[in-house]
Design a protein that fits this description.
This protein is mainly α and 337 residues long. It is built from 15 helices and no strands. Helix 8 packs antiparallel against helix 9 and helix 8 runs parallel beside helix 11. It is globular.
Length: 337
């Protein structure tokens, strides 16, 4: 666990207050109850999918492991002029990086946020349904981690990439840096929550890029499609939990949350050039540094890659965008004009 996040699962946000929006909170909890009751039917960890999910027949060594258009240097001459086998190896590395970023999101962003809810460290979640649905989500995330670790292992074995090591991803690194800027435990918890909300709002679209792509490795497509089926529900769960939490924050806490909520968007949208530089150097790609420098100069954070309309809608439902502070906060991140 990163030193900036140590002891945060034991911290609690103080100053819980009651608001005139109790009816809205009650409605949100009713929604959570309905989603929890459907968990046994929808959760992929509860499904018997093994018989239709065998890598022995699903893995096709002739197909690429990843989509070319997801590489940040897909149009760079040095990549386009590289031998075909090197290009294919880079695509395999892209699949591994895609999965390991998913592991980072699930284990370092979402799971700790679920623990904060389970331990009632946040206001507005001191009811049994919040703990139950957070626990169910935690089970889902543990299953997703196992799922993608197995997928990485299969790719590493088939493609000879067992020794490939990746550095920490931008989303998690920036979350830790942001937490380190503040001394109050409640501030660190709200940064964790904001990062989890943004991740859960965006991850379905992130997974959708591969979930329905039949041109890539069949096994890889099946892994992502299985994961996405859970994440479609998780987005709604986290948005509903956020409504319960936000309406129970103190005025000071609300102001802080308004400031930090849009920040993880650019962290999520980052094209991870540091990770790619480490990958390309390990597989012996020539001109790695110059190609990465060219990519960084063009656009390292591309907000056009993601649809952040759901986050804007959530901010609107919370009333965040009714205040000048909310408009300014989202505007500084390029999300509201």
């Amino acid at each position: 666990m990163n030193k900036y996040y140590q002891n945060q699962t034991q911290a609690t946000i103080p100053g819980k207050v009651r608001h005139r929006s109790d009816k809205e909170i009650s409605h949100s909890r009713t929604v959570l109850q309905k989603m929890s009751r459907s968990w046994h039917k929808r959760a992929q960890v509860k499904q018997n999918i093994e018989e239709n999910f065998q890598p022995e027949w699903a893995f096709d060594p002739t197909k690429d492991d990843f989509r070319l258009d997801l590489l940040p240097f897909k149009e760079h001459d040095d990549f386009l002029n590289a031998p075909v086998e090197m290009q294919k190896q880079i695509l395999s590395c892209g699949w591994i990086a895609y999965n390991e970023k998913t592991i980072d999101i699930e284990s370092k962003v979402i799971s700790p946020a679920c623990n904060h809810i389970i331990y009632r460290s946040l206001p507005g979640v001191d009811d049994g349904i919040s703990q139950q649905i957070a626990s169910e989500t935690l089970v889902d995330e543990a299953y997703h981690i196992l799922l993608v670790i197995n997928a990485c292992c299969i790719t590493r074995e088939h493609r000879g990439l067992q020794s490939l090591k990746l550095p920490e991803f931008n989303l998690v690194r920036n979350m830790y840096y942001e937490q380190a800027n503040f001394s109050e435990p409640w501030q660190k918890i709200l940064i964790q929550l904001a990062t989890a909300i943004v991740s859960e709002v965006f991850i379905s679209d992130y997974l959708n890029l591969l979930a329905h792509d039949t041109t890539i490795q069949p096994f890889n497509q099946m892994v992502v499609a299985t994961h996405q089926r859970d994440e479609l529900a998780h987005s709604s769960i986290f948005k509903t939990l956020t409504k319960c939490i936000y309406r129970n924050l103190s005025p000071e806490q609300k102001e802080f949350f308004i400031e930090v909520l849009p920040k993880p968007v650019s962290w999520f949208a980052n094209v991870e050039l540091t990770v790619w530089e480490a990958i390309l150097k390990q597989i012996g790609f020539p001109k790695t540094e110059s190609m990465m420098a060219d990519c960084a100069a063009s656009n390292q954070v591309n907000l056009l890659r993601i649809d952040y309309s759901e986050l804007i809608a959530l901010a609107g439902e919370l009333g965040i965008l009714d205040s000048q502070h909310g408009v300014d906060s989202f505007g500084r991140e390029g999300l509201f004009h």
